[in-house]
Design a protein that fits this description.
The termini are far apart. The protein has 593 residues and is an alpha/beta fold. Strand 4 and strand 5 form a beta hairpin. The chain contains 25 helices and 18 strands. The longest helix has 16 residues. Strands 12-11-13-14-10-15-18 form a 7-stranded mixed β-sheet, sandwiched between helices. Bound molecules: zinc ion (ZN). Zinc ion binds next to loops.
């Protein structure tokens, strides 16, 4: 059905939308409106010569000038479609649980309102029984049977504002509702004062439920990768990590800390009573038709439990080396390596440097029906189609090592080990690679050549490293300049010096910078890309490894064969206008290059 409040687009000068027309016909048939009034309204629209302001909508005119009663229209609509009429949305009580099933944005867009749930049946107020696509989709998404009840679009819009708050997408709004002055300490009291009082009184936590939802929703809207809720002495800090950078957002009131943490623990299906030990759980939510997984961990701290939620957006996961930011030369080299029949390829970097995503992209690339791929991960981050992924479960004795041993009995061609942490895992990985498996794994080292010395340090024999290792890829993530507000930019002399950019290089470069826009929350960056250092193990390097040479000499050797450092790869991406000098310099601090 149409939107009565906004008067439509320029095209409505000549045409009234079909739904309006349908209702007008119905209103005429049932004598809810006089034909003369409709004629008058149509003339008024036709005579609307002003192209600047939009023409009034037929229904809006009939309501305003001819006293058309849309509630009566709704009654007839309900009767015609054999649907029940919604209860009076002005007095109905709706629990926070039920509201939580449908995001505000979805409810507002489709002019629907969930108002009750009985078992697997969700009762939904709808304004347009003709267009049932949104309703069908919603039922499918929630795996509930939807029972539509007819109401007017105006009543639904007013109820959405009342139940979800005027703009529940905004945390500020909810917070001002929750902490309106003079409300005392109880969330229930503030509910009544803020006009949200019609939520079911059996559900006194509804404001907290909504607050938690809105914190999560806002994080998702802002493309955060994780949400940190940290109890400090005097406040309950909330931070989002966006493109790798933590950003503090408005803190919920300290007094709600316990309720918020409890609510999250319930959602994550972990024990509320247990507050002394760290716990892990998972929340699955549906946002705008997309299923998102939140990995939740709780950690006792001096001022209460801290909650960190990692947002895993499977559909948003971009697999493919070019999508991650590999330039075509590095991509080709990686594809050559991962197509080898055996050997080990390691990806190194600190936590959060995108190692797993790179490995997933490699697996994705070689994931063909004739190959068997098994992974052992702690935990499994994303489910990949056609790949057998085994989670490590140390609590039941399923360690990396034991999982790996059983996995090799399943005769895979390609093996991915989440991380090599100890000698036992390293030895199994090497044995697997020497017996005809391609093995991928990660290590925590700063640069690529150090991976060799790390393996030897944990006890692997140098000759085993030299014969099994094919390559080491070190990587970092830098923020990508927002494509919507990118502008050519001339770096200062100091900036050029910080990356050793010569005047000749600078004159050929396309430096850019994001000025900040709505697309990037004003940061000038959106998304991230990898900068990489690919250390190929050739015969000369093998000899050095065999002789147990230190990483500095390995590095020199690799450089002499043309290994590009992360900083140099970053420089290529700076001069291509993809990222900034600052990003590359700050992320590669301490790189000897
Ligand atoms: Zn921008």
């Amino acid at each position: 059905m149409s939107d009565f409040s906004s008067a439509g687009s320029v095209s409505s000068v000549a045409l009234t939308p079909g739904a309006d027309e349908f209702i007008v016909q119905l209103a005429l048939e049932r004598t809810l409106v006089a034909p003369a009034a409709v004629e008058r309204a149509r003339r008024q629209i036709a005579e609307h010569a002003d192209l600047v302001t939009p023409a009034p909508r037929l229904l809006a005119l009939l309501v305003a000038d001819a006293g058309l009663d849309l509630r009566r229209v709704a009654e007839f609509l309900a009767a015609d479609f054999g649907l029940p009429l919604a209860p009076d949305l002005g007095v109905v009580r709706v629990s926070g649980e039920v509201l939580g099933l449908v995001p505000r944005e979805f409810a507002a867009r489709y002019k629907i309102l969930p108002f009750a749930q009985e078992g697997r049946v969700l009762k939904l107020a709808i304004s347009d029984p003709i267009d049932t696509e949104a309703v069908d989709n919603l039922g499918h998404m929630l795996k509930l049977t939807i029972e539509p009840h007819v109401a007017t679009a105006d009543d639904i819009a007013a109820a959405i504002d009342r139940f979800y708050g005027k703009d529940a997408g905004s945390l500020d709004q909810l917070l001002s509702n929750l902490s309106a002055p003079g409300n005392g300490d109880s969330a229930v009291a503030s509910t009544e004062a803020s006009g949200l009082g019609n939520v079911s009184d059996t559900d006194a936590d509804a404001p907290v439920v909504k607050l938690v939802h809105s914190i999560i929703l806002e994080a998702i809207q802002r493309r955060a990768s994780d949400i940190h809720m940290e109890p400090l002495e005097k406040r309950f800090r909330v931070r989002y990590r966006i493109d790798g950078v933590l950003l503090e957002v408005e803190n919920p009131p300290k007094r709600l800390q316990l309720s918020i943490v409890s609510r999250l623990k319930i959602m994550a299906n972990i024990s509320i009573a247990e507050k002394r030990i760290p716990q892990d759980g998972r929340i699955q939510i549906m946002v705008n038709g997309r299923q998102l997984d939140l990995r939740v961990s709780s950690l006792p701290t001096a001022h209460g439990e801290s909650i960190v939620m990692r947002i895993l957006d499977k559909e948003g996961l971009q697999l493919g080396l070019p999508q991650l930011g590999f330039f075509s030369d590095d991509q080709k080299e990686m594809e050559r390596l991962i197509a080898m029949p055996d050997g080990i390829v390691l990806v190194t970097g600190p936590t959060g440097s995108g190692k797993t995503t790179t490995l997933y992209s490699c697996l994705h690339h070689i994931n063909k029906p004739d190959r068997k791929i098994i992974t052992v991960e702690d935990p499994v981050e994303y489910q990949l189609n056609g790949i057998n992924q085994v989670p490590v479960r140390a609590d039941v004795g399923m360690t990396f090592a034991s999982a790996l041993r059983s996995m090799l009995r399943q005769a895979p061609n390609i093996v991915m080990i989440g991380e090599i942490r100890d000698l036992e895992t390293a030895e199994i990985a090497i044995n697997a690679s020497l017996t005809g498996h391609m093995v991928f794994s990660t290590l925590h080292t700063n640069d690529a050549p150090s991976a060799v010395t790390r393996l030897i340090d944990i006890g692997v024999k140098p000759f085993l490293v030299s014969t099994s290792l094919r390559a080491v890829l070190a990587q970092r993530l830098v923020r990508k300049i927002c494509p919507k507000c990118t502008q050519p930019y001339q770096p200062t002399a100091a900036e050029l010096r910080s990356l050793n950019i010569s005047p000749a290089m600078a004159s050929a470069a396309n430096f850019a910078k994001g000025t900040g826009c709505a697309n990037c929350n004003g940061t000038g960056f959106r998304g991230r890309l990898v900068i990489v250092e690919l250390f190929l193990i050739n015969e000369d390097v093998q000899r050095l490894i065999y002789e147990n040479t230190g990483s500095a000499r390995l590095r020199d050797k690799a450089r002499s064969f043309g290994m590009r450092t992360m900083r140099e790869d970053g420089l290529r991406k700076v001069t291509a206008g993809l990222t900034t000098i600052d990003e590359v310099v700050s992320i590669t601090v301490g790189d000897a290059s």
